[in-house]
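Collaborator request log, item 7. Partner lab (contact: R.S.) asked for a structural prediction of YlbF family regulator to inform their binding assays.
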Amino acid sequence: MSVSEVQTMDMAAVLMNAYELGDMINQSVEVSDYLYWKQRVNNSPSVQELVRLLAKKKELFEETQRFGHFHPNYHSAKDEVKAVEEQLEQFEEVARFKQAEKNLDDMLHQMSEMIAFSVSDTIKVPSNDPNPKRGCGGGGKCGCGG
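Returned to partner:
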C-alpha cells in the first residue's frame, strides 16, 4: 500500500469519527434544550412581534451611527434599542433560549479546545468569550502567550 493510500484511509477514519462526534453532539441535552427553546421563541407571537420591533429600532440606530454621538437622535435611538432588548429578556422563552445557546456554545468551544490541544497546545481556538483565557491573539510582542 502506498503512503497516499494509507493517508487517505487515515483521513477517512478521522472523518468517520468526526461524523460520529457530530451525531453525538446532536443527541446531547445541550442541543435538545437549544432546539426546544429556539422553537418556543419562534412560535411565540409576542416574542416575534418584539423581534420585528427590535429589528426596526436597530435599523434606525444604524442610521444614526454614521454621525455617532453628534447625530441628534443617536442617544434616543440607542435607548430605544436597549428598551426593546430589555422587554424581550422578560420573556421566559428568550431567557432560557439565551442560556441554552450559551451552554451549547460552551460545550462546542470546550470540545474544539480538546481537539486542538491534543494536536498542539499553541493552536488558537476561536471563542465568543470577550475575555480570552489564553493570550491576546494579537500577534504582537506582548509576551502573553497568544
